[in-house]
Write a structure and sequence with these properties.
Structural class: alpha/beta
Radius of gyration: 18 Å
Low-confidence stretches: none
Shape: globular
Order of helices and strands: EEHEEEHEHEHEHEHHEHEH
Distance between the termini: 30 Å
Largest sheet: 9 strands, parallel
CATH class: Alpha Beta
Bound molecules: manganese (II) ion
CATH topology: Arginase, Chain A
Length: about 300
Amino acid sequence: MKKKGYFNCKLDKFENLKSKQLAILSVPTITHYKNKKDYCSSAPKILRKESQKFSKRIGSWDFDTNSIFLKKISNVVDTGNFRLSKNSKNDRNNLTKSIKELTRKRNKFLVVGGDDSVAIPAIAGLKPLSKIHLVQIDAHLDWINKLYGEKFGRSNVMRRASEMPWVNGMTQIGLRGMGTSKSKDFKDAKKWGSKIITDQKMMGMSAKEMLRGIPKNAYVYLTLDLDGLNPKEFPAVETRSPGGPGVSKIVEIIIEIGKNRKFVGANVLEFAPKKDIKNLSLNAAIRLIALLLQVLNR
Ligand SMILES: [Mn+2]
């Protein structure tokens, strides 16, 4: 039997992508902190396999988008598993090159990870679009300059993004509790102009209010760290942060990004399969990936 991709979409080589097709890239990891264990590089394969069970639902009614579920799946191409070398700098460059090629040709894309470090080379690849607004959903600020001697790890994401001239703005949603960020990191983020919507602030806010202020002409990229979700709905993360938005709130935000905006791509990162409880997170991740495919593929 021929191998298939997410939701049984076509699985084909990156080189064979045609214009306007929506590409899925699976990236197990990129830049590991040397003192940390691997906890999510198996995620893309597990998610792909699970999503294939839902291919039976293609044609069902999707109540999130009020449309037929994955009606345009023929336009989606799974480009397989990103090949990693033993050198994270090489891997970053290769991923950035691939994403640059996509953005230059105006292909929309979804990156399935992998840990949050995957976001850095992905955002770097958005360069050809020149004006990008990032929407980050995360329990953490990720503005640390260097951690454990590394500048491209999962806690350095938004700091590195802020240094990219094509990143014009960012909205950071869901921050709470105490991460590893210091007050200087927070001050730098504010000074740079990041719009920070903490868990406390977002209570009672609609997605529309949260995203107000994103310039109408800007391209929007969503970087979703799944630990941004409430761990009672999404326990399968390395660092469980009590509180935070549930799946429904994330759905609302994704739908809102897709409205009247140039939504070019997204990444879904930090699913740590071994930490899951009764497939709660697996199911939630599948719903969010399906929604992103629906919204990006319009
Ligand atoms: Mn995080």
